[in-house]
Amino acid sequence: MNAVSDDQTSLLHQAAHAGRAAARTLAMSTNAQRNAALHAAASAIRQAAPAILAANEADLAGYNGSAAFRDRLVLTPARIEAMAAGLDIVASLDDPLARILAEWTRPNGLRIKRIAQPLGLIGMIYESRPNVGADAAAIALKSGNAILLRGGSESFWSGQAIHAAISTGLRAAGLPDACVQIAPSTDRAFVAAMLAAAGLIDLIIPRGGESLVERVRREARVPVLAHAEGLCHTYVHAEANHAMARSIVANAKMRRTGVCGATETLLIDQAIAPALLPDLIADLRALGCDFRADAAARALIPDLPAAREGDFDTEWLDAILSVKIVADLPDALAHIERHGSEHTEAIITENPEAAEQFLNGISSAVGLWNASTQFCDGGEFGFGAEIGIATGRIHARGPVGPEQLTSFRYVIIGDGQIRP
Amino acid sequence: MNAVSDDQTSLLHQAAHAGRAAARTLAMSTNAQRNAALHAAASAIRQAAPAILAANEADLAGYNGSAAFRDRLVLTPARIEAMAAGLDIVASLDDPLARILAEWTRPNGLRIKRIAQPLGLIGMIYESRPNVGADAAAIALKSGNAILLRGGSESFWSGQAIHAAISTGLRAAGLPDACVQIAPSTDRAFVAAMLAAAGLIDLIIPRGGESLVERVRREARVPVLAHAEGLCHTYVHAEANHAMARSIVANAKMRRTGVCGATETLLIDQAIAPALLPDLIADLRALGCDFRADAAARALIPDLPAAREGDFDTEWLDAILSVKIVADLPDALAHIERHGSEHTEAIITENPEAAEQFLNGISSAVGLWNASTQFCDGGEFGFGAEIGIATGRIHARGPVGPEQLTSFRYVIIGDGQIRP
């Protein structure tokens, strides 16, 4: 990624200039025109399903990595249909650009409006899952942004085939091809050129493993929207409903263990642990979960493996749960502040005051009361899809849909005012 | 600024940790408490006026720069009163944290709220004007953010005296001193440590000349909110009211020439130029303005100095105006896109369709119709003050007041939902 290449830099600059010109066209387009492009792209993806499957075969033929990664790479007719359906859903969302965010009149008669506006050109850097490119293109288009996709080398041919179908949709709606571009090669120097393109690319969104995101953050001279880690907590409060706690904890940990919204640490009040923790552990064990427990939890359930230094700072992304008994709610908040990643935390309680204290006491992007942390997802938020999840403090947080890919500008209407 | 120093890094880390702890207290504080601190700080500034003036004398005694910079550095009883009044005005604004930005319910019954939240710890790097520190502290406090000020070495003693008064106000309201801190020395390595403090400082705001802003942008590993240049345009459309155009153009250029919202380039339609441009030039000449004009303007007014290569890309910040005759509105938009800095542009016209086309055709942070570009200012927007002006595409644009120093988080309320 550090390699610099004049050829790749020049390719990137060409693509970025074309993308910026397309972004200006998109910024002036109507919601109807952008929706027409999304629906046409969905149709084109459905029609191109055989070609996309063939391209995916070519990628799989050259792949020799782990089975888990291979599963992310595989496309099936059902996955292709889901990708197309995602484009249709994004088209059905409200227009994120037709929004006056605020409007007021000054004593001198100036009328000030704050109006939503696209960001411009988005650079999307992702790993092997081919559908990420289609989701990202849909959200960018809906919000009037041009996008430049750079997928992983393992999914190169799948990405090109999906991109070709999206281009067909753009043409059908009379929008420039350069609204959605894909990197023409898998040369890593192209990524380095993207990260250096301050003033040409307005925002970089990395989506993939922690090492990808870290490298992008470290090297980028362009603003980056990303999440570092998802070290999510579920806190079972003393006044939790037992059945609800069992259902939510099992889901929050084990529904899918590899997603960033999966719970990595269970915190449970000492007042309720003797009555409830054995059931929680038994449920999770039945689902194949392993544990790293503090001394207090092991005093209750001696066969739990002991947590070591650093376990409470580990995003397992696996069927492993860190378990800790806390004294009370402030103790839980202190643990989250020290070990959390400001991603997603949940409290299970029947006590509304405790819920409020918890939800106000965390600074995480998403806080839930009596629901599973696995709901941290653009689709579950009603955004149709997501282009990523953000845990920084600036611009956007949580799942990022079309509305969060906009910024704003001020329009001021006067009748000759000059400043004294 | 490149110098690295272990001592200064350790000082910065101490200050940042204290600031982050104070930010957590502020995030839980009430609007009434933050307002009490602002009013108490205003009183303390008024009471400390003699001490602040004496500190300013000490700064001035050691200063041997230009007269223009010296004027920015000078404090008077009237300027100190204006600083105190600014704190009172910021206190009177609506609470930027008591805002539910959006709220909706999902088909599964989950209630999702997007709630305003402070950013955390702001790092403010500014040059010689001592009042910038007070304005920035007021806006940060109002929005629940802690702030670390690092002013110019020329205003070191003035900054310390103003900071002491603000600390008095914080104590009176029962808020931690570390809500507003000031760099303990003028060592440039402290600035380098601030710029490197990713994860400790949430946002850096540089305020000063272009070279300061550029260095901060280049070196910072922390997100930066800034404006690069203010290359602002006033476009006089064919259907402009003559008297209004004369009044606005004179104000937009000459009210104050050193501010970023000053007009640097006048664009005027060829259809109206013969009748109007001579009057505009005569008005500006009477105010001491000089010109750099294109060939078409010089054909009308031969004694205008000729524009050279690069003049239309120059932010004069002086009594100089670039002048160009354009064919029509699209020609004006094309010029702004090529030469502008996405800061502030104005159109003067009586034709509403032309105004709309102009205001939608620019992507600048602020667009005005029939008003002076010098209105690009937090006070004029009704923000009480401003902590800076942003021209990036991400997070905030235009004058930045308390509301734009917030981000958001999601709060989700369920009754046991698990994800299928």
Features:
homodimer, 15 helices, six-stranded parallel β-sheet, 43% helix, alpha/beta, 420 residues, Aldehyde Dehydrogenase, Chain A, domain 2, four-stranded parallel β-sheet, 2 domains
- Provide mean pLDDT of chain A, rounded: 94
| Unreliable runs of chain A | none
Strand arrangement across the biggest beta sheet of chain A:
9-10-8-7-11-12
- In the CATH scheme, what's the topology name of the largest domain in chain A? Aldehyde Dehydrogenase, Chain A, domain 1
Q: Give the overall form of chain A.
A: globular
Subunit organisation of the chains: homodimer
Count of individual helical segments of chain A: 15
Our estimate of the beta-strand percent of chain A is 15-25%
Return the domain count of chain A: 2
The arrangement of helices and strands of chain A along the chain is HHHHHEEEHEHEHEHEHEHEHEHEHEHEEE
In total, the number of strands of chain A is: 15
Q: Helical percent range of chain A? A: 40-55%
Which CATH architecture of the largest domain in chain A would you pick? Answer: 3-Layer(aba) Sandwich
Rg of chain A, nearest Å: 24 Å
**Describe the biggest sheet of chain A?**
6 strands, parallel
